[in-house]
């Protein structure tokens, strides 16, 4: 029989180009990528054997019989394996996300292995093919090759559909398309046996895999040539599942903004590219990642000697870098993070934390994240997750602490305090979780959620009837910088029909320092709408009197540490007394925080403070104090 192999020859050329491109480009070195490379090699060999056997079978008289049997056996054995390899590739794609079972791999390979062994017996049994005086002939089981491909196609399709919840629908559909593309030319060849087409299907499947999963461009940082953050996450996920410990050296370049200013963005990018090239030359292209911005990571085995590698990396950084006809130097903080101390989810947080700590210490510093540091990072991650969960589920707690009027001897107002409960850690202080929320951007949502809870509480408890003039609500630094914050607050007040005069917004000195110009504009708009303002924690930061001159505050809240210091020494006492007197002369009401006992309450009242707030009178609670607690508070408040 004469075979038409023109299509297969074209396919060989196409696959050869794809093989070259795939090997030249940088790629992730993981099991799936290795499997893809093997699959591509097998397909290439399979198509080459298909073309070769077409010629040797046609010229069976000239070709030694042992060679013909050998070539055909290898070709058909590979044919048995290709459908199985497609199925295993889809399976491994799913198992990036969920742990797999070894018995499934064995079960999936069994039919193909049995078929391949039967093919190998054909020179003796003639089950799949044989030669006689008239040439090459199909054996009684030759059709099983098509049945084998069909069975694997069905099983793979079912598995891809079943796994759609683990992988995205698009990936499941692509898996099914790959199966159809592989199968269709084979079916055509079954009905038109003199046209060799099966290689076209496998080649197209290889190409689809390359475009959708193995295209290394998606893992490469185009600016520097390093592997990118997505590649880093992919790598960590694979190696953490294998419980394979690694040490990660993180380089955070010092003053790189200055480099960009001197050499321009293009010059800065070129400098980073040269650094990456040097690191890749020292280690490998699969070990160097750009973590983001001016941060890079070198991932090594835990068995590597850390101190030696630290000196090697420092040596690379100390080189003279020739750029734009001049030599420049690079400095960097270096952090060492051990993957064994962290979960897959917390490892990237640990890297960010280590860089932050190193930058605080100073330029060119080295920090190693130990197991103790990992505990602190785990706490940070737990708080961050608790913040996100509380926002999504609207479960932030708001507690209220009464503020006592020293002149009228009654409760005058209340401060709303956000509270966060973290699983495994209990309640954490606002100072801790607010700082985290400001960094990850959730503080804006928290602020508005707290205000909504305050409005509900004010209406439900009819606070105005109980003599409460207003509720104080804290505004964070980030909130103060938002151009639309005033309208957001007023919109919530309108929603619950709350008089703006019933809300007093507390702003810290640090907030005023960070965003004074924007803050002035926002405060003027909100004051015109009826809101009032307090300067919170006076004495804890800059203690700048200009804020009280430039910004429309009506109340100053003196920080508890200033109050506590006044109880310990005469100098601090004199300072506090004069601060209170100064504010009174410029017609500002004074609230003193941190009042914890009778002596403090008496002293602060004698100094002329308008209001006192602290644990002596009442702790923050979710509800108004009941009658029994109110009686106890009244008794404490009757001090002279």
Rg over CA atoms: 36 Å
- Provide the structure class: alpha/beta
> Which sheet architecture does the biggest sheet show?
8 strands, mixed, barrel
- Percent helix, as a range, is 55-70%
Span between N and C termini? 117 Å
**What percentage of the residues does DSSP assign to strands (E)?**
15-25%
Shape: elongated
Biggest β-sheet: strands ordered side by side in the sheet = 10-11-13-14-15-16-17-18
Classify the oligomer: single chain
Q: Uncertain regions: pLDDT < 50 for 5+ in a row?
A: 96-100
Let me know the number of strands.
18
Summarize model confidence as the mean pLDDT.
82
Tally of contiguous helical segments: 24
Walk me through what this model shows.
There is one protein chain. The protein has 640 residues and is α/β, with parallel strands linked by helices. It contains 24 helices and 18 strands. An 8-stranded mixed beta barrel has the order 10-11-13-14-15-16-17-18, surrounded by 6 helices. Helix 2 runs antiparallel to helix 3 and helix 6 (144-162) runs antiparallel to helix 7 (169-191). The radius of gyration is 36 Å and the shape is elongated. The model is unreliable at 96-100 (pLDDT under 50).
């Amino acid at each position: 029989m004469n075979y038409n192999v023109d299509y297969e020859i074209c396919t060989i050329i196409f696959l050869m180009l794809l093989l070259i491109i795939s090997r030249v480009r940088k790629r992730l070195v993981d099991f799936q990528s290795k499997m893809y490379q093997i699959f591509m090699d097998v397909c290439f060999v399979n198509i080459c054997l298909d073309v070769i056997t077409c010629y040797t079978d046609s010229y069976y008289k000239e070709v030694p019989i042992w060679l013909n049997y050998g070539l055909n056996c290898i070709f058909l054995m590979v044919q048995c394996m290709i459908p199985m390899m497609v199925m295993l590739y889809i399976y491994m794609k799913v198992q990036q996300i969920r742990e797999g079972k070894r018995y499934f791999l064995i079960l999936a390979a069994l039919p193909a292995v049995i078929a391949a062994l039967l093919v190998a017996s054909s020179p003796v049994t003639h089950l799949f093919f044989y030669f006689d005086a008239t040439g090459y002939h199909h054996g009684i089981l030759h059709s099983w090759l098509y049945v084998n491909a069909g069975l694997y196609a069905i099983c793979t399709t079912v598995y891809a559909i079943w796994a759609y919840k683990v992988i995205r629908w698009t990936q499941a559909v692509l898996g099914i398309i790959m199966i159809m593309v592989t199968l269709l030319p084979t079916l055509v060849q079954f009905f038109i046996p003199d046209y060799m087409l099966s290689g076209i299907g496998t080649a197209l499947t290889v190409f689809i895999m390359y475009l959708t999963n193995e295209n290394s461009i998606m893992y490469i940082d185009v600016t520097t040539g390093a592997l990118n953050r997505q590649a880093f996450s992919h790598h960590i996920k694979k190696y953490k599942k294998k419980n394979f410990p690694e040490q990660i050296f993180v380089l955070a370049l010092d003053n790189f903004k200055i480099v960009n200013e001197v050499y321009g963005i293009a010059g800065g990018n070129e400098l980073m590219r040269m650094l990456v090239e040097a690191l890749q030359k020292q280690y490998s292209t699969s070990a160097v990642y750009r973590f983001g911005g001016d941060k890079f990571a070198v991932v090594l085995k835990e068995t590597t000697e850390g101190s030696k590698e630290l000196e090697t990396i420092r040596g690379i950084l100390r080189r003279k870098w020739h750029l734009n006809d001049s030599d420049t130097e690079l400095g960097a903080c270096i952090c060492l993070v051990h993957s064994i101390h962290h979960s897959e989810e917390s490892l990237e947080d640990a890297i960010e934390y280590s860089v932050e700590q190193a930058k605080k210490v100073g330029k060119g510093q080295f920090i190693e994240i130990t197991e103790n540091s990992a505990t602190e990072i785990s706490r940070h991650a737990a708080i961050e997750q608790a913040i996100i969960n509380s926002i999504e589920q609207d479960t932030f707690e708001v507690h209220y602490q009464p503020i006592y009027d020293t002149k009228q001897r009654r409760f005058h107002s209340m401060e709303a305090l956000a509270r966060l409960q973290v699983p495994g850690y209990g309640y954490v202080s606002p100072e801790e979780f607010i700082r985290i929320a400001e960094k990850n951007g959730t503080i804006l949502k928290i602020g508005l959620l707290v205000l909504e809870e305050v409005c509900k509480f004010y209406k439900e408890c009819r606070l105005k009837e109980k003599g409460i003039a207003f509720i104080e609500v804290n505004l964070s630094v980030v909130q103060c910088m938002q151009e639309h914050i005033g309208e957001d607050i007023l919109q919530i007040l309108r929603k619950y029909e709350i008089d703006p005069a019933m809300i007093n917004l507390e702003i810290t000195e640090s907030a005023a320092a960070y965003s004074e110009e924007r803050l002035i504009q926002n405060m003027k708009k909100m004051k015109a709408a009826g809101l009032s303002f307090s300067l919170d924690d006076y004495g804890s930061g800059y203690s700048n009197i200009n804020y009280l001159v430039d910004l429309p505050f009506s109340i100053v809240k003196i920080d508890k540490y200033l109050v506590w210091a006044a109880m310990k020494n005469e100098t601090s006492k004199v300072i506090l007394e004069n601060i209170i007197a100064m504010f009174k002369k410029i017609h500002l009401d004074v609230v003193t925080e941190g009042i914890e006992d009778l002596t403090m309450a008496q002293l602060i009242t004698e100094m002329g403070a308008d209001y006192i707030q602290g644990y002596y009178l009442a702790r923050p609670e979710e509800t108004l104090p009941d009658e029994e607690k109110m009686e106890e508070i009244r008794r404490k408040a009757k001090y002279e």
